Amino acid sequence: MMPGIESGTALRNVMLTLQVLRTDYVTHDVKRFILKKPPGFTFVPGQSGNFSIHAPGWEDKIRPFSFTNLPEDKHIELMIKIYRNKNGVTRELERTNAGSELILHSVFGTIEYKQRGVFIAAGSGITPFLSIFRNLFKKGKIHHNQLIYSNKTLKDVIQAEELKRMLGKNFIETFTRENVIGFIDRRIDRDFLIEHISNYKQHFYVCGPENFVNDLVAMLKDLGASTEFIIF
Known about the structure:
CATH superfamily of the largest domain: Nucleotide-binding domain of ferredoxin-NADP reductase (FNR) module
CATH topology of the largest domain: Rossmann fold
Strand order of the largest sheet: 4-3-6-1-2-5
Structural class: alpha/beta
Strand content: 25-35%
Order of helices and strands: EEEEEHEEHEHEEHEHE
CATH architecture of the largest domain: 3-Layer(aba) Sandwich
Number of helices: 5
Shape: globular
Radius of gyration: 18 Å
Number of domains: 2
Largest sheet: 6 strands, antiparallel
Number of strands: 12
Distance between the termini: 26 Å
C-alpha cells in the first residue's frame, strides 16, 4: 500500500501524474476515464480523489471525483458528469482523451461501508457507491442492502443494468421529470421514505447535490435514524 493512503484520511501533496488510457460515455453527459494505476496505489471503496488536468492553465483547478473501480483493479476508473453550459473543469475534461494526463493531488472520503443498510443517491451521487457495491458483490455480501436512486430522466441513470444485476429487487429507481412505465415518478420526500423503508435503526448512506443531502439527512433523523448511522 502506498504510504499515507488509509481509510478516512487524506493523502496531501501527492502530485501523481496519471495517464489517460481510454475514455467513453456511460450516459449522454457522464464520461468514463480509465487511468494508468501507479504501483502500490490503493484506496477504500467509497473514497474520492482531488484531481486536476495536466495541461497549461488547468493544473491548479482541482476538483473531487470518486473512484468507481475496485481497489485491486489494474487501472483507476472515474465517471465524471460533464457540465457543458459551464466553461469549467468538466467541460475541459470533455476535450481530454487517451494520451492526456490527470494529476491526483489527494485521496479522501467519509463515505465508507460499515454495515448493510439503505443507500440513497441522486444523479452522479451514485459514483462513490459504485465501488462499494462492486466490492460487496464480488465478495457475496451485497444482499439486504437497498439502493434508492433518483434521476431527472431515464437517460440520466448511471450503470443501470449493472446496478440491477447486483441489487435485484433492492434497486429502486425514481424520476423527477418524466413518466417511465414500470418505474416510480416522484421526488424522494418524507412520504416516499415511509413507503419504502420500514427500519430506521440501520445504516444510511446518502450522496448527491448539497440540498438533496441536507434534506434527506433531516428527514431520516426525523423518522428515527440515528445521526451516527447516517453517512454522507
